[in-house]
Write a structure and sequence with these properties.
48% of the residues lie in helices and 15% in strands. It is built from 14 helices and ten strands. The strands form three sheets. A four-stranded mixed beta sheet has the order 1-4-5-8. The structure holds flavin-adenine dinucleotide.
């Protein structure tokens, strides 16, 4: 049996699993394009963990299955098309692998099994009001007092901080010298006295972001990952672990399926939307871009599987994958026309006779606004362009 046959059989078993085991309420939430609650997500994590599919890309030593990148990508795609929610990459693709590489044996034993069980939620405390693309400018400070750091300052844009049990944060432990050489990486319990989480309601109407304030928060020194002032190396490695995922192939295919569904079910001036030339041209254009993105991602996957080093050119996957999601969401909104106008899906759903189709339309504008963030988070498109220009093209 060749690898292709194996992968397609594997994909079918994932399809069946997600059809049978994804809780109905969560499937509905995702289908309707709404935000899932922490409780819904933790329940789903537990189902996946029982199957051994929550962290299959992790090594077996830590509860994973040593899956290859191509198997992981096939899995992600089947999950997205089966209306499963996106998993919290901060927990499973960032802090988990960071602890495997840089954590002390005690930190690994303490956190990795709990993360692999799906019951612990992490958030990322990197950005600050004046430190985003220029991350080395972080000013949240941690002053050493014996065996603890006392942390003061604030973080912003902390995604799903309201769900989180723990935060990993970049803090300044030295003010002199190069800014990158005075940063440490701390693991902080969100229940610590002195932490305040203030939600930010986004333009989409949902709380995704938060501000996190630290007021004399005491963090034991043993919760520092890596050396004091050596946090920059740990911080940068995070993005390495999810680089291929940033093409977001599965998430793009999910959007394509929605765009098709909307085009086929909506009518404009006596004609199906899918029959209008403007819709057909745009759909074909985006579909072609998706095929090209997938082919590109497969090239990188093949290189990685052959043990070759992947260089900065992988930035193109993030650049293209995130922009394509926005273009699908725009097509969905345009295909829905005035149906996509309400920014209040909950109100819509409470109307007599409302269907999940109405809800999907009702959340279309919110999702389009949400997608705006994809070209900013994880390194903005301008930063990706800079990387490609300088490091790949040598400009
Ligand atoms: C959806 C989403 C989720 C996020 N989640 C988290 C999270 O969980 N934790 C966290 O810590 N942060 C998170 N962030 C924050 C994110 O990391 C920052 O928004 C991002 O790094 C950009 O920083 P900034 O917002 O300060 O913008 P700035 O860095 O101030 O950039 C402003 C504009 O200037 C451009 N720019 C900046 N520098 C250059 C340059 N050198 N050359 C050319 N153009 C440049 C940028 O591309 C952008 O258009 C999230 C952001 C989004 C949108």
């Amino acid at each position: 049996m060749n690898e292709h046959t194996n992968l397609s059989q594997f994909r079918q078993s994932v399809d069946r699993f997600v059809r049978e085991r994804l809780p109905a309420d969560l499937r509905q939430t995702v289908r309707q394009g709404q935000q899932s609650t922490r409780e819904q997500l933790i329940r789903w994590h537990e189902v996946l963990a029982a199957q051994g599919w929550l962290v299959p890309h992790w090594p077996a030593e830590w509860g994973g299955r040593d899956w290859s990148v191509s198997q992981q990508m096939a899995f992600d795609e089947a999950m997205a098309l089966g209306d499963a929610p996106e998993l919290n990459s901060v927990t499973f693709d960032m802090i988990g692998p960071v602890l495997m590489r840089y954590g002390s044996p005690e930190q690994q034993r303490r956190f990795l099994p709990t993360i692999a069980s799906g019951r612990q939620w992490w958030c990322q405390g990197y950005s600050e009001p004046n430190a985003g693309s220029d991350l080395a400018s972080v000013v949240t400070r941690a002053e050493r007092e014996g065996d603890v750091y006392v942390v003061n300052g604030s973080k912003i844009w902390t995604s799903y901080g309201q769900y989180a049990d723990w935060i990993f944060a970049l803090v300044r432990t030295r003010r002199e010298g190069k800014p990158q050489e005075g940063i440490s990486f701390l693991l902080i319990d969100m229940k610590s006295p002195g932490i305040t989480v203030r939600p930010i309601v986004g333009v989409h109407g949902w709380v995704v972001f938060n501000e996190v304030f630290f007021d004399n928060v005491r963090v034991p020194v043993e919760l520092r990952v890596g050396e004091e002032n050596g946090g920059w190396t740990v911080a940068k490695s995070l993005l390495e672990f999810e680089r291929l995922k940033l093409a977001r192939i599965g998430e793009n295919k999910r959007r394509m399926a929605r765009a098709r569904e909307v085009g086929l079910s909506r009518w404009r001036e006596g004609r199906r939307v899918a029959d209008w030339p403007w819709y057909r041209t745009r759909f074909a254009d985006l579909h072609a871009r998706l095929i090209a993105l997938e082919a590109n991602a497969e090239r990188f996957v093949a290189r990685q599987m052959a043990g070759e080093k992947i260089g900065p050119e992988v930035s193109m996957l993030k650049l293209r994958g995130s922009r394509l999601i926005q273009l699908w969401e725009e097509l969905i909104v345009d295909a829905l026309g005035s149906e996509a106008a309400p920014l209040s899906p909950d109100w819509l759903l409470n109307q007599p006779g409302a269907t999940s189709q109405d809800a999907l339309a009702g959340t279309a504008s919110s999702r389009r606004f949400l997608a705006r963030g994809y070209t900013i988070a994880g390194g903005s498109s301008e930063i990706q362009h800079n990387i490609l220009a300088k490091q790949v093209l040598g400009l």
